[in-house]
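re: ur question from yesterday

yeah so i grabbed the chain u mentioned. its 194 aa long if i counted rite. heres the sequnce exactly as i have it in my notes:
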Amino acid sequence: MLATIRASAVIASAIIAFATATPSMASDIDRLSINTESTLAASAPVETAAAPSASLSELVEAYAGAEAPNADQECIAAAVYFEARGEPVEGQLAVAEVVLNRAASGKYPASICAVVTQASQFSFVRKGRIPRIAKATEAWRKAVAIAHVAWERLAQQIGSDVLWYHANYVRPGWGRRLTRVTQIGAHIFYSGNG
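ran it thru and got these structure tokens back, copy pasting raw so excuse formatting
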């Protein structure tokens, strides 16, 4: 909301400055009938990204109640929901970023949903299927918001080379050959660099 107000003020100031600097073009500006509110609503993710003061919690709140606009974001949200819904928003975002990083890495399927449903990768997936999700819950709404933030790259918790994580109460053998990057909440994140 704050980013939208700031952006509206910047656009209005720019229009006034432009009209003042070139009075002969003021009528052209009037004919354009710029509706800053609808323009900002259509590009809210871009405007939010431009607001450096927006915290991750504020970004998540801004997307609260949104629906996943496509299958890829729904798959990211499902991974967040099942893997990290009890974690802080920073940990939820890091899980979403791992999914995106894997799809971009060339080491995993290029499709987001194929990354999530790949055999033996995420413990919640059964026979290549994502279980039923309680979509009327706050946890799902937050997972969808996190998916939006991750998809739009509005905030970042981990580097693009971080492709793996596990809960801190397990000790998988593969963790020993990777470089531990960070721990966020109950998840430990790794890169292949070492």
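noticed a couple things. Residues 2-21 form the longest helix (20 residues). also DSSP finds nine helices and three strands in the chain.
anyway ttyl
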